[in-house]
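Bench notes, afternoon.
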Amino acid sequence: MGRLQPGHSAPQRSASKKWKTKGGDVKALFALVFLLAASNPVCAAFYSGVELKRLMAAGEAVGQGKVGADQVNAGIYLGYLAGIAESFQGIYYCPASSINLHKMVAVVANYLMDNPDKLDQSAQTLVVRALGLAYPCSRTPQERGVPEAREAH
């Protein structure tokens, strides 16, 4: 294939051809993937407490500047905590406006270290519980119109 000359455009592919591949129709591939996914049991929790603690260890190693620390898992840990924290703030925990991610990381780390018997629970449950204990709301979730929390396994 040569380069395009000024004033010439690339040949257009028809809409019907853009989803076709050498191996067949992409729609058939999507259907196969869907059927395979539907045949496997689904778990509501992405991470368990054990996995969260492993990610936490990576975060601590990076924070301490250890050579060879797993920066990817450290980033996953911080992103996971930030996502859970922002999703449930004002619902299941009510921090002061001065709260920051560094303080939340410390709260969750202390909770995980103090409660090794709870690491079989979902990471989401543990993070929300840790933040809820550290930053309780003045009114109960029911008083604020929040539905009762369910345990994810």
